[in-house]
Amino acid sequence: MSSIQTNPFATTPSNTTMTEDAAKFIETVAFEDMPPNVLQIGTRCLLDGLGLYVAGSDDECVNILARLAEETGGKEEALLPGRDGVKVPAPVAARVMGTAGHAHDWDDSQVSHDPDHVYGLLTHPTIPALTGALVAAQLHGGVSGKEFMLAFMTGFEVETKISEWILPQLYKRGFHSSGTVGTFGAYAAAAKILHLQGDALRRGFGIAASLAAGIRVNFGTMTKPLHVGRACENGLTAAILARAGYTADPAALDGIWGFCAVFGGGVAPEKLSQGFGKTWSIDYPGVSIKPYPCGVLTHPSADLMVKLVKENNIDSKDIARITLFAGSNILNPIRYPIAKNALQAKFSLPAILAMIVINGKAGKKEFTDEFVSSEAMQSMQQRISTQFSPEIEAQGFDKMRSSIEIELNDGRLYRGDADERYRGGPDNPLTDGELEDKVASCAEGVLSVAETTRLIESAWKILDLQDATYLMALLQKNNSSR
Fold first, then answer.
1. Which of 144, 143, 128, 156 shows the shortest CA–CA distance to 39?
2. What is the pLDDT of residues 56-86, one digit of tens each?
């Protein structure tokens, strides 16, 4: 066999049919095919995602994108979040919306039971698929709440299955899964809304595969949320181009030069029998809705810190040092030993622990440049360190494990182990009330209390909506008359 017919960098099973299977799923899946649990969890993810758009709509990185979008102009197809009544071309709106949804790193995380394929190695599934559905619904018009949820869940399922099946080398090589695989979530949701069929639907996967991008070097900068914004923009672009007759390889997920081989080194053949929609990933293994606006790998440690501070009535001025012990699965991605700004703080264990010591919580108000750069935060971070634990490393990566030791100035020691049933995950989910509280905190300072209440109530009643674009109107400021 000649070298042109082999890819020495990938191990790919021959004759896989991922692209065709995904296309058939999009073509045939109906609202009645979704189990009640899928709709229930999907509605929670919808509510969470809407809150995150609002939270990100006044973030600096989103303001830059939105301002440039307004200045550039173009066909008025879809609303910008946080820009009352302003419409821009659909792919541009998707870029801004996707970036807003990921701006605070507060969006949900896909769950896996594969020890080698968990947490950061997977995708933030809601924002790409939800953005694809919301923007495409504005393009198409007259999309009911039921049609909208079907498209959202279709994109969610396609995105998460590809993320689960592709080998974990995708992330280990330095790609950001939400920026790469997220493109297919946005594309699939948009394709469902726009009723793409046949060759056009399959070509769209090829277009999306070539547009996918995002590398981990930009974690802790404005470009990380832009990864998701671009995934949403590229998914919409792929759907629009495919509908217009643009050509691409109709089996672009498969083969030695396909997306899975090039980005991840191949696929896990034993997983392909799961299929799309036989079991829905949102239901099993599930999804984690984040209580904190930062990397999910930090969450068990943050909860432990809250517990230690409250139970022992620890005051920040009495702390001599704090040491966090963890394995490489947590310490490597959470990369900043001292955070200088809010974006770095999302990937800094000392910053998150310092927030809790100082303010008792780590939320939207704490993750601001002003708070992170304050003298109190900078001083406290100097007293907090992380340490690699061979004992924790030896237990494997199937759980997010960590321990914290606090030494006070008077010599007293307090120590604890993080709960492996992390809050927000399928085994310990946020209650509906806690989720509503999260959305309210996302909207604080952006929407009024009445506007926030209207947004929450409308999300819970999504299946009753005659036109799902009503949701976009609710994301705008001053929506009381809508």
1. 156
2. 999 999 999 999 999 999 999 999 988 888 9
